[in-house]
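Subject: design request, 435 residues
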């Protein structure tokens, strides 16, 4: 029987039960309910409930079928709108105009959450799997509370090719992943891990540019997994991180990066709060006067001189060398000599100081048996000059509490160990942070 015939049967049962209850009430001599009346009343409740489930199921199937047919058109319109928004934002950025939030961006964000999952269109369940024939009571109850959970969506992905993410070690349909041409084997990232890497790179400059096995990951490869806001934020941060002598708004409540096109005659104008900043001392603009040396900056410089700190010759960050050689690599990727500040390998300064190397050596010896094993293999034991193996030569530590990652400091159950220097890193820092 089809769905309409099943509903008709339930309606006839309900009508019969109502007639029996009415007849029993008419023939009842006292106020006490007879067993037959109670039985028919309970049966009537069950029949009405089952009929409602059938009707809800029919509505759910109709909605599912309608959504499945409308999604391609909706997705095509969204893609066109997203591209228009990105093009407009890029034009504003290159023209040096201030970005304004528009209603279309909020609508796109809402649509992205409703119709897109990980940058690709949601697979609407096929209504063919919801048979319109008669079903059992427990099946009716399940279909009545129909929802598109992750488990329901997974049913539509059965049979699709799948790949394992190198970061989270979970399997995903191949169309929800990207494959990078790493050596000696390609690495696969799921949409969440790839998008997370690009979002983290906008907050942690040591992760910029996003890379795997020292090879930069093109934005075009991951852009389909990013929201328009995340893409625009990454592009803005790319301009910031690629600028050597950066200028930020001197307003403490703003501190927005000011790109070079907005700096004229050493006066940087913030497009967010309209504050003018001196591009030389990074303080408030002096309105045509000479830039005085800020006393607080000079006191910090004096303290740095007493402590032996140095400043990056590119971004002017303050840097302290505690252990290791004099080869410094700043977060802005500038490599210089810690002693004289010259670009690395362009001076005649010594490469190390014995006392600092001794401190580094003591730290290595404290790392269980790794230093001894490295000496027995005859490998280089200084992580500062180690090239760090590329490929699958890194050793995975025993499962348990492996301690913190050397770079990010996060504790993991297991880490990857460099076969040359014994340094222990997490998978993300091993693939994305080593340069």
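Subject: RE: design request

Done. Sequence follows.
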């Amino acid at each position: 029987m089809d769905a309409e015939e099943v509903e008709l049967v339930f309606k006839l049962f309900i009508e019969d039960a109502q007639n029996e209850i009415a007849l029993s009430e008419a023939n009842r001599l006292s106020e006490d309910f007879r067993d037959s009346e109670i039985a028919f009343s309970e049966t009537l409740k069950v029949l009405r409930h089952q009929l409602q489930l059938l009707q809800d199921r029919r509505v759910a199937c109709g909605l599912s079928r309608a959504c499945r047919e409308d999604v391609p058109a909706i997705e095509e319109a969204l893609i066109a709108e997203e591209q228009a928004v990105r093009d407009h934002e890029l034009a504003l950025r290159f023209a040096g105009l201030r970005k304004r939030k528009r209603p279309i961006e909020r609508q796109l964000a809402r649509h992205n959450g409703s119709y897109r999952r990980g940058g690709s269109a949601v697979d609407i369940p096929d209504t063919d799997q919801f048979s319109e024939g008669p079903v059992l009571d427990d099946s009716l109850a399940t279909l009545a509370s129909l929802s598109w959970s992750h488990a329901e969506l997974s049913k539509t992905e059965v049979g699709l090719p799948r790949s394992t993410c190198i970061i989270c070690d979970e399997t995903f349909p191949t169309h929800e992943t990207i494959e990078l041409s790493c050596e000696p084997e390609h690495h696969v990232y799921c949409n969440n891990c790839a998008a997370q890497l690009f979002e983290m790179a906008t907050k942690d400059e040591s992760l910029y540019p996003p890379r795997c096995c020292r090879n930069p990951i093109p934005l075009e490869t991951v852009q389909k997994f990013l929201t328009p806001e995340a893409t625009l934020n990454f592009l803005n941060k790319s301009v910031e991180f690629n600028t050597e002598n950066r200028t930020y708004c001197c307003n403490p409540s703003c501190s927005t990066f000011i790109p070079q096109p907005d700096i004229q005659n050493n006066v940087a104008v913030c497009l967010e709060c309209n504050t003018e900043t001196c591009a030389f001392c990074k303080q408030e603009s002096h309105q045509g006067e000479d830039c005085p040396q800020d006393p607080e900056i000079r006191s910090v410089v004096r303290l740095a001189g007493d402590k032996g700190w140095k400043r990056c010759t590119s971004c002017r960050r303050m840097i302290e060398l505690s252990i290791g050689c004099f080869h410094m690599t700043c977060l802005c990727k500038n490599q210089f000599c810690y002693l004289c500040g010259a670009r690395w390998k362009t001076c005649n300064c010594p490469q190390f100081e014995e006392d600092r190397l001794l401190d580094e050596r003591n730290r290595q010896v404290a790392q269980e048996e790794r230093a001894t094993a490295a000496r027995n293999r005859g490998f280089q034991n200084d992580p500062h000059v180690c090239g760090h193996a590329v490929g699958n030569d890194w050793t995975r530590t025993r499962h348990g509490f492996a301690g913190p990652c050397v770079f990010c400091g996060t504790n993991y159950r297991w880490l990857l160990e460099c076969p040359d220097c014994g340094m222990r890193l997490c998978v993300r820092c091993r693939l994305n942070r080593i340069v």
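Residues 3-155 form one domain.
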